[in-house]
Amino acid sequence: MWGVLATFLALWIYHGLFPGPAPLTTADVKNTYAQIMASATVPPADSALVYQAIQPSVVLIQTKGANTTGQDDGGLGTGVIVNDTGAILTALHVVTQSTEIDVTFADGTKSPAVIVNTQPENDIAVLQASQPPAQIVPATLGNANALRVGDEAFVVGNPLGLYSSMSAGVISGLERTFSPPNGREIQHLIQVDAAVNPGNSGGPLLNRAGQVVGIVTALINPTKEDVFIGIGLAVPISSAASGAGLPPD
Fold first, then answer.
1. Could you list the mean pLDDT of each consecutive 10-residue stretch along the chain, which spans 249 residues?
2. What pTM was estimated for this model as a whole?
3. Structural domain for 168, as ranges
4. How far is CA 26 from the centre of its chain?
């Protein structure tokens, strides 16, 4: 009897000296949840990762050439570095009538460039800068044959002179054909709804892994306005890369 009382007395003294934790309230739970969410790091979006991967490889192309009146007529386009020697893939129509080609790399390096190869059947040209940057960052090339309608698509370029801009959409169609004004028909094109405008020509079309799967060549507009209405076209990289001496994917 006295032993039991002694035990209860000991427990009572213990709990008096060392009280247990207070039960959690609703306010406690909300505060804890708010602290956890505030400290959580939100991962970057796929588009942000794609841009980070390709931006060091994107090139601004500026051209000069005589127009129909014999005066200098400036042009603008985009290119992408595709190998360790600094070869730049772009659209042939961006540079084909140029008397002078200047390129600006992502680090700010500026240099004259010359055409070293062309693929008229695919509207593709390869440029080489006379004074490339100290660090050349070639893009990673992907597999255009693996594309499916509905896949994510990203375009990075210089639309309307807005340097290194990004647009996003999806692959809208495959195996398209396009006949540019005063040019030969181009086949096996990729259709995208990622916005492209004058200045995007020659720039990279990218998949969600940041790999180049095409080179932007045209936009389609049933009016005479040279602006995007939802249909852009790109040459598959499997065709374009051979112009730079690279194996097809």
1. 53 54 62 62 78 96 69 80 94 92 95 94 94 94 95 95 93 91 85 93 95 93 74 93 66
2. 0.79
3. 144-244
4. 46
